[in-house]
Amino acid sequence: MAATLESFLAQGAQMFLVLAIAPAVTGITRRVKARLTRRRGAPLLQGYRDLLKLVRKDVVLAENASWFFRTAPYLIFAFTWVAAALVPTMASGLMFNWAADVVALVALIGAARALLALAAMDAGTAFGGIGSSREMMIASLAEPATLLVALTIAFAAGTTRLPEVAQFLINQPIELRVSFALAFVALVIVALAENARIPVDNPITHLELTMVHEAMALEYSGRHLAMIEAAGYLKLVLYISLIICLFLPFGMAPIDGGPVAWAIGAVIYLAKVSIAAVALGVWEVSIAKMRVFRVSEFLGGAFIFSFLAILLAFLSREVLR
Amino acid sequence: MSAFPGWQLPALGCALAIYAGAALAGAVAPRRALSFVYPVCAAAAVLAAAADLSVFFTQANLQAHLPIGLPTIGLHIRLDALSAFFGLIVNIGVFASSIYGLGLGGSDLSKRIEPFYPAFCAAMNAVMLADDAYGFLFCWEIMSLCSWALVVSRHENEENRKAGYVYLVMAAFGTFALLCAFGGMAGAAGGYTFDAMRANHLTPLVSGLVLAAALAGTGSKAGIMPLHAWLPLAHPAAPSHVSALMSGVMTKVAVYAIIRIVFDLLGNPQWWWALPFIILGAASAVGGLLYAVQDQDLKRLLAYSTIENIGIIFAGIGLAIAFKSSGIRYGAAVAMAAALIHSLNHSWFKSLLFLGAGAVLHATGRKDLDGLGGLIHRMPKTAFYWLIGALSIAALPPLNGFVSEWLLFQAVLVGPVFPEPILRFLSPVAGAMLALAAGLAAACFVRAYGTVFLGRPRSEEAGAAHEAPAAQTIAIGLLAVLCALGGLFGGFTAYAIGPLLTSLAGASLMKLGDGPTPFSLIAFDQGRAIYDAPTIALFVAISAIATMVAVHLLANKKTRRSPAWDCGFPDASPATQYTASSFSQPLRRVYGGIVFKATEDVDMPGPGELRPAGFLVRYSDHIWRYLYLEPAGTLWSVSKQFNALHFLSIRLYLVAMFCTLIALLIIAATWM
């Protein structure tokens, strides 16, 4: 019983851990970008302040907005939060990790995305439609790529359950597998696209011709916008956690670790997330944004990489796997 | 054989009699009184569904022999778990459509629709019961003809007549192919009962030919590519509650037929039987959606999406054949479960979406996406249920479409254990195509829902729409509830079809309560793959509600209304909204160039010119052109050449007969 309570608390801790660090992770990336472009940049806590400011403001609803427009932000936030909480981060065998395997996780992200794309069309404006249409075009390539990456790793581990996948990789001697390398590149490309980062989308622009994610959130304000923003922060953490869990789970606490191991796992996880956030900042200042119709080639590349990865994993003998 | 074992067969017989009686009464009743057909059909559906349900759960195998039909064979009837499962799909669909039909008003009733509707329902039920080739084909043909009559019920419309013509040709082709398949299985001895076919052992060549014919016959009815051409024409042409039956239910009768033939009648599966199923299934899944995502007509879009879903089902069947022939029973069970559960799920959400489209058509008189919009305000119930259907068909958790999708990906993951390299290669290819289809399905239904129900009305009719009659919203709501329950309790469905899976694939999926909660869906064993929809749904619901309450209580809950911001252009005309065509433009740029040779012509007037700008998109449908139009054209020109032979003089006919005789004699002399 004590073990159950402990693991229940650990699951709760993870749920609040991802939520608590989410604005800071985006903050780190923004800060790195600012420093590299010789600006001072906002403090790391700016994300929290923004959210606080937004929830305090009144909501200004477009005249045509329906109940769906008002409900969607909470659902989007909840879907993203639950998905982020189900990826093993600090420990590999948390209480509810089993509820959604990696296929279900990809679908949960898809559900959040579909709800946002629908909500964008509710007010009946030109920009909402632009964002929604482009987002679904991007997703039509990104989602299958994510799924194929997930299946590649799941095949190697013999299970689609993330805790077992992480555990399998930890116990595995370190070696280079071609299929994993291809899958890694594919997942990184997808993560950039899904989080509306450069070169697919620019998170800080409101330039009409290039917006994707921002165009969908254009009509939102107040607490609704706060939910959408928080979901965006969480999604970045979710993808970083997923990459860590599928490719670099080393240092994750084992299933029956106990509080001390979990704490160590949490520290290592935070270090890995910070490194990823810094790397994202460096990446974003080093390249330019693509035209929207080049994005399909970029993501088509991710799809091809992930397809090659799963083909290699399924077909080849030990050497190339 | 006088006794009917069990009460279920007599009950089904009663249901069939009620359907038939309704059809006959409909034929003589005055037009105004025709609405009696729907409550009668609903009652018959309940009776038939109860019998099916009872047989399905008791695993009864009921057989009977009636002395009607062909003199030497009579009529063999059998109701086993497979028939009962698909019979249940049929009768749930019929029940929902009939409830919807209760809401049809006076001007909707027609002597061309209501008498055929019960006959169509009866024929679909009867196909499931047939246990000999003659009975099967007879009922199959009745089903085709009744649905054809319903497709051409609005024959004033030129397009509907064309749809009816193409459908009739394809239905005749399908029945002919099935006739060949049964002929091959009956063999030279001519054992036309299914029992004789089971006992008949075929050579690989014959079984391959039978498989090809069966695939052509059932695939043309189910709408598998490239035999799908009639489906997007005919399904939307029928009245909406019939479209729901044709798309949601009649395609499942074809799925039943192919499962019956391949897994029951044809003997032990060979591994190469799986190839056409997996290849055509995966191609249909992606191809159907590429059409659907471009289409401007709400009902035709749904018909194209049926092709996608049938593709998923056929890919599942193909994987099941591959696993079964390789002796991997667990893989076969998972793949077969995916195919069966997807058949059930698709019958629910596709019926829901078609009935909803019917309600929209009734309320606005339009089904073109670019003329609709904003219906969530004017048809709130229909809009809510349609949202559930759209999210289900896009395979999003925790709704039912995702359950079968999840099982299918689990089956793909077993692919590397195939002994044959080509299957090892095909399984990840199928996985990639199905993943692509999942992504496109989300895009397709976001587009459809966004343009029809969200935004502002794009036409006066859409602005003046009204909610559908209560009977119709109840029917749609019922299916929405089924979609939600099917998603949450997918584990129970997987458990319930266990015995059926054992008989088809050689293994069952799971026992109830194997997982951490009683509702878990488990493939293989719980250490390997597990999905628990109720837990996830509970988590999402708690997080969403807790966040909403916290934000409202602790921060600010004030709301103001104002014109939309739209980057500083408020109150623009509804014409500035994204339309369905603009929504699909990025997707067209990505996929259309390769698949449809889509080209865009922009005609931009120069400065000072007063003519309007123009934008034209051209597609070409390769399948329609090369597989239908050109062969039809060739046939036409060849038959025109031969037409001259009708008008020869008697001397020339005599010469022709003489030459034929000489030729035959020479052939006989050289061969004998």
Characteristic key phrases:
heterodimer; A: 321 residues; mainly alpha; 11 helices; B: 672 residues; two-stranded antiparallel ribbon; 5% strand; globular
Task: Characterize this entry briefly.
The complex is a heterodimer of chains A (321) and B (672). Chain A is mainly α and 321 residues long.
Overall description:
The complex is a heterodimer of chains A (321) and B (672). With 321 residues, chain A is mainly α. Chain A has one domain (2-315). Chain A has helices at residues 2-36, 46-56, 67-86, 102-120, 126-157, 162-171, 178-194, 213-216, 222-247, 259-286, 292-315, and one strand at residues 59-62. With 672 residues, chain B is mainly alpha-helical. Among the domains of chain B are: 589-620, no CATH class; 623-671. Helices cover 67% and strands 5% of the residues of chain B. Chain B has 25 helices and 7 strands. In chain B, a hairpin with a 3-residue loop joins strand 1 (62-70) and strand 2 (74-79). In chain B, helix 2 runs antiparallel to helix 3 and helix 12 runs antiparallel to helix 13. Chains A and B meet through strand 1, helix 3, helix 4, helix 5 and helix 9 of A and helix 16, helix 17, strand 4, helix 22 and strand 5 of B. Strand 1 of chain A pairs parallel with strand 5 (559-562) of chain B, so a sheet runs across the interface.
